Amino acid sequence: MKPTEPCYQNYVRILREELRPAMGCTEPIAIAYAAAKARAVLGSLPERLLIEVSGNIIKNVKSVVVPHTGGLRGIPAAAAVGAVAGDETAELEVISRVSREQIAATADYLAHTPIQVRCAETEHIFDIQITAYRGPDSAFVRILDYHTNLVCVRRNGQTLLEKECASREDGLTDRSCLSIRGIVDFAECVEPADVAEILERQISYNMAIAQEGLRGNYGANIGRTVLRGREYDVNYQMRAWAAAASDARMNGCELPVVINSGSGNQGITSSVPVIVYAREKGFSHEELLRALCVSNLVTTHLKTGIGRLSAYCGAVSAGAGAGAGVAWLKGGRFEMIAHTVVNAVAVTSGIICDGAKASCAAKIAAAVDAGLLGLAMYEDGNQFFGGDGIVKKGVENTIATVGKLARLGMEQTDREIIQLMMEG
Predict the structure, then answer these.
(1) What's the domain count of the chain?
(2) What is this structure's pTM?
(3) Is residue 99 part of a domain?
(4) Does residue 284 contact residue 380 with C-beta atoms inside 8 Å?
(5) Each residue's pLDDT tens digit, 167-185
(6) Cα dihedral 100, 103, 104, 105 sign
(7) How open is the CA angle 185-188-190, to the nearest 5 degrees?
(8) Of 54, 119, 253, 325, which residue has the fewest beta carbons closer than 10 angstroms?
């Protein structure tokens, strides 16, 4: 693969599209973004909000702390801080610059403003619709399929923006170009300058929040629990640092992360273990960048067939990606990386997603462990074979099967999870 080839350029674009900074869990942040946009279109602070969202949005916002709210959780809190203090031009960093006065104003707004939340009647897994009212005026904003995809904006019934509501991610690079062999080839030939800015921001942001998670007191403190007594064991360090970043992020830490496939937890899981391993073992910065190309693109490849939101835990894909990145650092190429991915997803593909919350950190620790186990199996001459459960012959066939399981097979599971969560 050469830098002048379309496939190479597509891989660089995919990294640029997926590895984006976000402040807080991306689903509540998408709601805050929509609310900030609705306020801007309305021209003043709304005196009433109607929020209609798909079930998966309810699932992923219900239990997670929204940054810069003083510890508040849920859809009304996310919408309130977006309306009061959000910068509608900042997309997923919409509430990255909120003052103490605005935090207090958000609490007051939430206490005195009618905010109605409904489960939207929609065929889309990812759907956010916010209508803002003030006096006789109204503004409507809709985000569809992914976190910043504004498809409709109206003011007083007049359409300001309208895009086709297709069941695909229009405007993004076609992910069908991704394959494990292609990812390995790309990592070998990539010009570091083409990806350095993207990946160095991921290193900086995600390691900073991991460090904060280990230092502070967040949620169930999974990272600190994993690391206790194992401070000098790199396998535990990788799991602990990744889990600690999620501890902080799920429990209101006001530091940004660089996401992958729309998720901060996936961005953390696909990067932090690889960074920890590279630093502990003394790999060069360039080797780390190449390994991060592998881990991030493997994660994106796995998630493409699954979809942005699912009943299938996204940490599973990212843990496999992390294992692949470590395999690259150990000198592995296509065969080792392919077996690592297959072995990892064979172990952890049953983990469900029951929304963003403190226990995500524990699932991340398990997913990273599965990625490392998948790698260790290959190193010891062991593997899962086609026909072992959902494992198929060939890594691409296994990846396609996992996507079908998560996207189609777990549809009813997803509905049941959402119903159970809504029951309280």
Answers:
(1) 2
(2) 0.92
(3) yes
(4) no
(5) 455 578 999 999 999 999 9
(6) positive
(7) 95
(8) 119
